[in-house]
């Protein structure tokens, strides 16, 4: 499925509460679903349960539903967000991840990328 189609189709299950409440719904939902992913890892690592990949896949889907809310309400294109993120990571880590670059970030350069000023 294409991201644009997902964002459009996912809107049919959103109860419209107005922009501010929809944005809050998206933000709270992302946090809640991320907590459910953490719980799956807790159960696996601390309780010896098999890692429930099916559940993790479901929670990732739920996170995307909430991300779609934020994208719609803020008129953001997911493709642009993904490309900007890659551009920022390339600036931060020119070759690959390193602790040196993680600690010594060029925040001005990263901000320019985020603002579209590459």
Q: Main β-sheet: number of strands, strand sense, barrel status?
A: none
Distance between the termini: 30 Å
Number of domains: 2
> What is the helix/strand order?
HHHHHH
User: What is the total tally of β strands?
Assistant: 0
| Average pLDDT taken over every residue | 96
Q: Name the overall outline.
A: flat
Strand content: under 5%
Overview of the molecule:
- The chain is mostly helical.
- The protein folds into two domains: 1-76, Helix Hairpins (Orthogonal Bundle); 77-118, no CATH class.
- The chain is built from six helices and no strands.
- Helix 1 (3-10) packs across helix 3 (53-74) and helix 2 runs antiparallel to helix 3.
- The two termini are 30 Å apart.
- The relative contact order is 0.11.
- The model has no long low-confidence stretch (mean pLDDT 96).
Question: Concise description?
Answer:
This protein has helices at residues 3-10, 19-47, 53-74, 78-92, 99-103, 107-114. It is mainly α and 118 residues long.
Produce the secondary structure layout.
Elements: H1 3-10, H2 19-47, H3 53-74, H4 78-92, H5 99-103, H6 107-114
Helix pairs in contact: 1-3, 2-3, 4-6
Kindly list the characteristics that best describe this protein.
single chain, 118 residues, Helix Hairpins, 2 domains, 6 helices, 74% helix
